Amino acid sequence: MNILAIGAHPDDIEISCAGTLAKLVQAGHNVVICHVSDGDKGHYEVPAEELIRIRKQEAQQSGAIIGCKVISLGMRDGKILADNEENRTRFIDLICLVQPDMVITHAPNDYMPDHVAVNRLVFDTTFLATLPEASKHHPIASKVPSLFYMDNLSGIDFQPTMYVDITDTFPTKAEMLKQHESQLVWLKEHDNVDVLDLMETLSKFRGVQAGCKYAEGFIQHMAWTRPNAVRFPV
């Protein structure tokens, strides 16, 4: 299967679903990670252009740990708008390029504007990419993929409909997140959060709910035309 994980920023996927992605790779599936923004505003002191270079390298290092492809759509923090035609086109091209069977992204009630906009763009374009002449650069998507929402930061107002036991891949998840060194600093300064500790706490909490040491929670989007019977192939 082709699995596409789409996060707004270069560390979002690692925080919320990297343990599951590692299991999917181990199971022989093709995994692609996409971050929509280059993360240009994720530091108080490092200039934007230098930070973009740093965060691109961090993202590539993270993806290399599990041997998956990492793509950036090259947008800017705070500029991801769900009703922007140019943004829709970028997402449609991404879907047509990857041809995913399954897409994982932010939940519609996530905590900040970029995350919520990505959710809407993913919902819209996973359907639109199947229409005639959807992309000028790639074949149209062969199917409307199943759609799963990854956990909100800290799990607020997020009730998983399924869990993945990531006990065996938790060390890999932690190592992937550690590659985003610039954001360990930013989240501490901007949000007063140790993101590694926060990630482990949430993984333990979902593990308690799922009956294992560490877990990740997901909500499957249930709607007509979505292949609702699809389950995580892990």
UniProtKB/TrEMBL annotation:
<dbReference type="Pfam" id="PF02585">
    <property type="entry name" value="PIG-L"/>
</dbReference>
<protein>
    <submittedName>
        <fullName>LmbE family N-acetylglucosaminyl deacetylase</fullName>
    </submittedName>
</protein>
<dbReference type="InterPro" id="IPR024078">
    <property type="entry name" value="LmbE-like_dom_sf"/>
</dbReference>
<dbReference type="InterPro" id="IPR003737">
    <property type="entry name" value="GlcNAc_PI_deacetylase-related"/>
</dbReference>
